[in-house]
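Action item from last week, closing it out:
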Amino acid sequence: MNKSPPYPGGLQPAHRGPRGALPAALALVLFVLLATLIASSTSPTTRSVQDPPFSTHQLVFHDRPDGAVVVTFPGAQLERRIVLAPGTHNFIRGVMRGLARDRRARGVGSEAVFQLTQWRDGRLELADPATGRRIPLESFGPTNLAEFRALIQPSPDA
């Protein structure tokens, strides 16, 4: 008895899986896409509320021909000037060099003030109101943070 295969050439139909799996998978993909679209087009319901700053200081940095940097505090009650000797305070110099480069690219002069804000929790933030850049200084570690903190804390012999 010669039994012939039920399908020509010995081909078998592919296993299709349970009925309705494909429509369910397509529905899931469409749901995820729709949910993502809705979530990205709506504004967040929670907002970051920040305490008022502990102190805010206006600073202007000037380069001298001898390589020193002079920091002045315009608008302060007492005239203050700090001179950063050549080859010192490399972190401050590096940060200010980057901000100055951004200002030059936007056509902003060097006379515009920077804001150094000390928050109640001890964080420091350097902001450039002329360009909108903000730098959270604590992210660079305690040694580098101390360089900027020394600018706004009066020295013991003052």
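Closing note: Residues 21-41 form the longest helix (21 residues).
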